[in-house]
Design brief:
Blueprint: H1 4-14, H2 18-27, H3 46-56, H4 62-69, H5 74-90, H6 94-106, H7 114-132, H8 135-142, H9 147-156, H10 158-162, H11 167-175, H12 182-198, H13 200-210, H14 216-222, H15 228-235
Helix pairs in contact: 1-3, 3-5, 4-5, 5-7, 7-8, 7-9, 8-9, 9-11, 9-12, 11-12, 12-13, 12-14
């Protein structure tokens, strides 16, 4: 009898598009020395991966999900995370949520590209931390030397922003303003922009205290939704 992982592998293989399989390694920077070095792709669209995840998430155990999430293929890992999100959202008891969080943290090494991080972290870890006052889980990741862990921490605060809480986002952005990689600059700027969408005064207050020392990419992302005059004032240092 075919295992559930084998069924998922075959379902994704059947949805593979050769042109996408050729394009995605370049898009996700998988060359030597690049941030996605060594990642492999089947060429499956995200909507198709969501469909597969929807079909199988209630049938697969965490032990079986581990096989999928540790795969070298990007789409296997993303589909696994989509299923994990659904499992977490459907789990109402704290012990079940604790088990999923432990699983997520124990497999965090496989959440190793920006889309994997951004899709999963705030819907699982960010929500759990907010609802259970477990900010320490995010702070520990923010202190890590690993870029993807740092990105999990700051993007994880998206859940806080959606609930109107901004201090943790500002703390993590400030802590990592001088990070050397532009993927962190983009994440920091994106979260500041999201904060501004919720409360523009909070964004402006933060920018006024930090914009002169922010990496340019971070600043551009953060001010994207401000009016053009204000954007130019920040870009040209007139504030």
């Amino acid at each position: 009898m075919m295992t559930i992982c084998k069924q998922i592998f075959e379902a994704l293989n059947d949805l593979s598009i050769p042109e996408k399989a050729a394009f995605l390694p370049k898009f996700f920077k998988t060359g030597k020395g690049e941030y996605g070095e060594g990642d492999l792709f089947l060429g499956v669209t995200v909507p198709d991966q969501r469909s597969v995840a929807k079909e199988f998430y209630s049938k697969i155990s965490l032990k079986e999900l581990s096989e999928l999430l540790s795969s070298p293929y990007h789409e296997h890992r993303l589909t696994a995370l989509l299923m994990l999100i659904s499992k977490f959202e459907k789990t109402k008891d704290l012990s079940g949520q604790n088990e999923i969080i432990e699983f997520y943290l124990n497999h965090l090494q496989y959440v190793n590209n920006w889309d994997l991080v951004d899709t999963s972290c705030y819907k699982i870890l960010g929500r759990y931390a907010f609802e259970n006052q477990k900010e320490i889980l995010l702070r520990d990741l923010a202190d890590s030397d690993q870029m993807w862990y740092k990105r999990v921490a700051v993007v994880g605060t998206m859940y806080y922003i959606k609930k109107g809480h901004f201090e943790l986002t500002k703390e993590f952005v400030s802590r990592n303003l001088d990070h050397p990689h532009d993927l962190m600059h983009k994440a920091n700027g994106w979260l500041l922009r999201e904060m501004g969408k919720k409360n523009e005064a909070e964004l402006i207050s933060y920018l006024n205290g930090h914009y002169k020392i922010m990496p340019r990419t971070c600043l551009r992302y953060a001010i994207e939704r401000l009016n053009e005059e204000m954007r130019q004032d920040y870009l040209k240092g007139r504030i």
